[in-house]
Design goal:
Blueprint lengths: L1 E3 L1 H7 L4 H8 L3 H8 L8 H11 L3 H4 E3 L3
Antiparallel strand pairs: 1-2
Helix pairs in contact: 2-3
Length: 67
């Protein structure tokens, strides 16, 4: 299972979905899917802009958890 930590990271910075979408120029739906952990795929470009925004590594944003 892949765990997305976007909701936690947004909460720590008091950002909402609209804030992240505007700051990254990502589609609001893309941010929403990642926030709710319902995304079926993620582009490298999306990961890159989110990592830049949150000043983190990819591993801080997503995590593989063995089931």
């Amino acid at each position: 299972m892949i765990k997305v930590h976007l909701a936690r990271m947004m909460g720590e910075r008091k950002l909402n979905i609209t804030d992240v979408a505007r700051a990254t120029n990502l589609n609001r739906n893309t941010v929403t899917l990642l926030y709710r952990e319902t995304a079926r795929r993620v582009d490298f470009e999306t990961l890159e802009v989110l990592c830049k925004l949150f000043e983190c590594e990819v591993g801080d944003l997503i995590e593989y958890i063995e089931e």
